Amino acid sequence: MTSKTTTESTRVALYLRISTDEEHQPSSLGAQEIRLATFVTSRPGWEHVKTYTDQFSFACAERLALQQALRDGRLGLYDTLLVYRLDRFARSLKVLVGLLEELDTIGVAFRSATEPIDTSTATRRMLIQLLGVFAEFERATIIDRVVAGMERKAARGGWPGGSIHYGLLLDDDHYLAIRPSEFPIVERIFTRYGVGRVGAATIATELNDDGHRTRTGRR
Prior knowledge:
Elements: E1 10-17, H1 29-41, E2 46-54, H2 64-74, E3 80-83, H3 86-89, H4 93-105, E4 109-112, H5 122-155, E5 168-170, E6 176-178, H6 183-195, H7 200-209
Parallel strand pairs: 1-2, 1-3, 3-4
Antiparallel strand pairs: 5-6
């Protein structure tokens, strides 16, 4: 990675990213920013110039703030990209390796405030890849845990999240229940489709002609 001598000022950009289970993480966006800012001030010659924040969890590299950070790096707007932890940067080994190669190509150094990140030797490059493997494993574990929780809730009749389907509502205990004003239309749709073998477009036309609309008032 590109580095600067101790007599030169190093322009540092911070990269923050939310976690899938943000509320249960010790490294929330606010905590990351405070710790990284403290880390920068503790390094002689380091100057914080910009912060990039992705407000959602995404495994791939197509994140808005990350892409902006890479564009600014190509323009030479900072010298070092600093993250709190490697898994805040990438949780896929393939994505991690690709991003590190891109940073190296554009002459931007990459640092982690909590891990010995250094790509100057083969041994240290191997360590980064090992950390990337563990980050990928952690992400997969979180996804499995979240999906299992949603499945357990659904099996008990609860609603795992998202928009409520037409014809249904959530009762006071957050369980699915019939919405009396809409459910007869749902039964009509299923009867026409399943018994009458009528196509979806024809059913929609019939409902529209009878004056029925979606919850938002659309046809």
